[in-house]
Amino acid sequence: MDVDVLDHLVIGQGKWVSLKERGLGFA
User: Fold this and answer.
1) Helices 3-11 + 13-21 axis angle, to 10
2) DSSP output for the chain
3) pTM score, two decimals?
4) Domains of the chain by residue range
5) Nearest partner of 5 among 14, 17, 16, judged by Cα
6) How many other CB atoms sit within 10 Å of the CB of residue 20?
7) Rounded to whole angstroms, how far apart are CA atoms 23 and 27?
8) Phi, psi torsion values for 25, nearest 5 degrees
9) d(CA 22, CA 2)
10) Per residue in 1-27, pLDDT tens?
């Protein structure tokens, strides 16, 4: 996972949670 991806996950937690709920999250 690239640093940009991790940074994006931290900055856009809302989107990350949304992706996670859709089954597209890494965690």
Assistant:
1) 100
2) --HHHHHHHHHTHHHHHHHHHTT----
3) 0.23
4) 1-26
5) 16
6) 14
7) 9
8) -75, 150
9) 21
10) 577 776 666 666 666 666 677 766 555
